[in-house]
Amino acid sequence: MRTAAARTAIAAAVLAGSLLAPAGSAFAATPASPAAASSTVPDRYAGTPVLISEGVVAVLRNKSEGPEAWVRAVPKDWKQGDDYMGRVLAVVDVKHPRATVDGLRLRFVEEDVHHPYLSVTKDGKTTTHPFPKGQGPECLSEPVKRSIGAGAVAVLMTSPNGPIAQLEFAEEGEGGHTSLTRANPSLPKGAGIVARILNPSSAKPVFEWKTQGGSTPYGHATFPALPKGCTFDFTFQPATQKPQPETKPSTGPSAEPSPTTPAGPKPQTIGQTSVVPKGGVAAGAVVPAAAGTPVAAASPAGETGSAATIAAGAALIAAFGALGASVVLRRRRAQG
């Protein structure tokens, strides 16, 4: 039920938008005389012309705007196949069901919503002219939902008036939605995310989005086909916009060399240069280590370092001192 209601609501919105925009400008843009009419009929006003009186035709339409008759002035010798974009005399539709033009009484009749017709009465004689087969909600494609990230969902549809992308944002609740159409194909730049219809007037429009920054790739989706038997209300235009690349970020090893681990401190050698006093070395004196000779004494805990080296040096000095004292004592005993 919700899907059907949504389709009906969207179709009504498209219909209302189409009715409000072009109709107001039609009278100002219409040529002042049949001779000035363009031979190219704009899609908005194209239809089936019916001669209802000399010099008067009713152009019957039943597109996304609904059934309507544009009553126009044409040359008196007008025949089927001639240009019918003459001066507008009246418009007959749901909102304007009655009109009078040059003694003609025109009436919009909708006894059956599926078969409305235009009634024309002249000199007491009435003729009827059925409108073309309508393209109502039944000509709206089935919606296709696509998750686009950031808690948003895009509902893609196709109507006779072109593609529709309805964006639904979870954080904004039931009312949080925005519709993109052929007339409004993209979110503004400051929206925070990218969502747009590429080539909305082409035969194959594409929905493109990006809801996350950085190297996140763009997403793309095609629109569903228009239901069978329905036709578009506009002429296709060439596709000029190209989708953004979808290259995903590389997950392989980085091309940059990884930093090397700095080498630890090299073992240092502790040495002293021998300085031999003139006259030799006295008894009990300490003989320094030769230059460049490493000194590395182990501490009781098995560590090697400057503290252990100093301790070993102190022990060596004490040993040499004891040895010197012993020699002196022996000499004194021998002399005494």
A few lines on this structure:
This protein is α+β, with helices and mostly antiparallel strands and 336 residues long. It has helices spanning 2-29, 306-335; strands spanning 48-53, 56-63, 66-73, 88-93, 98-101, 104-109, 117-122, 125-130, 144-149, 152-159, 162-169, 177-180, 194-198, 206-210, 219-222. The strands form 4 sheets. A 4-stranded antiparallel β-sheet has the order 1-2-3-4, covered by helices on one side.
Mind explaining what this structure looks like?
- A hairpin with a 2-residue loop joins β5 (about 100) and β6 (about 105-110).
- The protein is α+β, with helices and mostly antiparallel strands and about 325 residues long.
- The radius of gyration is 49 Å and the shape is elongated.
- The protein has helices at about 1-30, 305-335; strands spanning about 50-55, 55-65, 65-75, 90-95, 100, 105-110, 115-120, 125-130, 145-150, 150-160, 160-170, 175-180, 195-200, 205-210, 220.
- The protein has two helices and 15 strands.
- The strands form four sheets. Strands 1-2-3-4 form a four-stranded antiparallel beta sheet, with helices on one face. Strands 5-6-7-8 form a four-stranded antiparallel beta sheet, with no helix packed on it.
